[in-house]
Design goal:
heterodimer; A: alpha/beta; Rossmann fold; B: mainly alpha
């Protein structure tokens, strides 16, 4: 756990478990999110990452444990995807207006997210990266103390990904908000976050990126060579991901 | 002539105006099948009214709202998909309704009027009732417009932003149920869903924003009503089906416009 214990956490989850039907998808997780810190949630598919995020946000009922939030905590949430039916005509600006009626605030935040020139475009016609930026912008309109991002770089090309991660780090510095992020990009996680939480139904290990990357549980899940401390622009692909984003052992890979 | 037509016309007007924006939500939230399920439960309402000798209109309303609330509840369970739940309730209602009607004696009821609508029989009372309910629904849609749009796009996001998603979703289904119960008078059980989704779908290619689509859907509904009523009087054909045919024709025309990327 972080050395700064005097700061009151934004959200604290104690021993939370979530059950879908009779399947336990999350088991006794403890988590504490601090202002100004980026925490990354990593783990294989089906590890319960999204479930943990939903439990913390109060979107799914808890089987055990409790979540304590700071009173009147403002959370900006970036969901994995929109459920945009093609029959719904809506421009990016109209979409943002659902969260704030203040035009100036929309323009400022769109500028910040580098999406200002796309505001008149229909939401359905934006590229993956542009849509992610619009979603991020909508989360910012809440003037969040905590940003919760569910795979922010999903569907974004490699250049766009590093830009997006840079933007997130920048936003943390500007707003001094806490960030909880689900990520599949281990390189970014190791280079750009303050705390890593490695999840596989239960929290296998957590802590500073360097300590996590040498933890036996982490090594068992992600292998030995996932590039701790490698800076974001200079990484090499020393492992492969399968279609689920899991790390594939290079020896069994056909590439 | 005018007095005979005045109340039916006003009644239909109220329903069509509300059907525009409500129909948009049906299309955006992909709830078309829910409309059919409601229609079947309305049929069950008629049958139950006959058996228990209560007011038919009241029985239909109770039956539709009951179903809407039940569905709002079970759809949160994940063991079966929402689609399957709808299919089960839809056909269970239809089966029970058909049995009840046959038990109550088919002679006791003008089933034809409920299946195809009985607009020209609308009186002052129907007109006032439907006008009241329509204004309530319209007020609800207007007041909760932004939150309702938000839940169409992502319910989790809406919830995090402080919208009470579950009650709002249930309220939308109840509004839908109420309109279905009322619209039976105009187009009948079989064509209710058409009255909701066809004007909305016809409005789609012309619109760049959700509110424009809602308004245009109402206007297309009004135009269909006018054309359908005229055709009905001119050729002496059933009113409900001719309104729906007019709407369908307008939909075909609207498809000629290639939506410019919106």
């Amino acid at each position: 756990m972080s050395a700064i214990t005097s700061i009151e956490p934004l959200i604290q989850a104690e021993n939370i478990s979530v059950r879908y039907g009779d399947k336990l998808v999350l088991q006794n997780a403890n988590l504490s999110l601090l202002p100004g810190k980026i925490s990354s949630l990593i783990g294989p598919n089906g590890a319960g990452k999204s479930t943990l995020v939903k439990a913390i946000l109060g979107l799914t009922p808890l089987a055990t444990g409790q979540v304590t939030r700071r009173p009147k905590l403002r959370v900006g949430y970036m969901p994995q995807q929109l459920n945009l039916d093609p029959s719904l005509p809506i421009s990016a600006r109209d979409f943002l207006k659902l969260a704030s009626s203040d035009h100036r605030q929309i323009d400022t935040n769109a500028e910040l997210c580098g999406i200002a020139q796309k505001l008149q475009h229909p939401l359905a016609k934006l590229s993956g990266g542009e849509l992610q930026r619009i979603l991020l912008c909508r989360a910012l309109l809440r003037q969040p103390q905590l940003l919760v991002l569910d795979e922010p770089a999903q569907g974004v090309d490699v250049n766009g990904q590093s830009e997006l991660y840079q933007l997130i780090g920048q936003l943390r510095d500007q707003l001094n908000c806490g960030v909880l992020m689900i990520s599949h990009d281990l390189h970014f996680v190791m280079a750009g976050t303050d705390e890593v939480i490695c999840l596989n139904q239960h929290i296998c290990c957590h802590g500073h990126p360097e300590s996590v990357s040498s933890h036996p549980e982490y090594l068992r899940l992600f292998g030995n060579n996932s590039g701790a401390g490698v800076a974001i622009y200079t990484h090499h692909h020393d492992h492969q991901h399968d279609i689920h984003g899991d790390v594939v052992d290079p020896h069994t890979c056909n590439h | 002539m005018l007095e005979i037509l005045l109340f039916p016309l006003l009644t239909a007007l109220c329903i069509v105006v509300v059907a525009g924006p409500l129909g948009c939500f049906v299309v955006w939230r992909r709830m078309a099948y829910f409309g059919d399920t409601l229609a079947h439960s309305a049929l069950m309402g008629i049958a139950l009214a006959l058996i228990f000798s209560i007011n038919i209109q009241l029985s239909i309303v109770i039956s539709c709202i009951g179903l809407a609330l039940l569905l709002a509840r079970v759809q949160q369970q994940q063991s079966l998909s929402g689609d399957t739940w709808l299919g089960i309730y839809s056909h269970a209602c239809l089966a029970i309704g058909l049995i009840s009607i046959s038990l109550a004696g088919e002679g006791n009821i003008d089933l034809y009027a409920y299946l195809f609508g009985d607009l020209l029989a609308a009186n002052v009372f129907d007109c006032l009732l439907i006008a009241t309910v329509s204004s309530l629904i319209l007020g609800f849609l207007y007041y909760y417009w932004r939150p309702l749009l938000s839940i169409c796009l992502n319910e989790d996001l809406a919830q995090v932003e402080g919208i009470a998603v579950a009650p709002l979703r249930a309220a939308l289904m109840v509004a839908f149920a109420l309109l279905t119960a009322m619209a039976m008078k105009v187009v009948g059980v079989l064509l209710i869903t058409a009255l909701l989704i066809i004007p909305a779908a016809a409005a789609r290619p012309w619109c760049k924003s959700p509110h424009a689509m809602a308004v245009l859907a109402s206007l297309i509904g009004l135009l269909s009503l006018g054309l359908g009523m005229l055709a009905s009087l001119w050729w002496d054909i059933p009113t409900g089906p001719s309104i729906v045919s007019a709407a369908s024709a307008l939909f075909m025309l609207s498809q000629l416009r290639r939506s410019r990327s919106y």
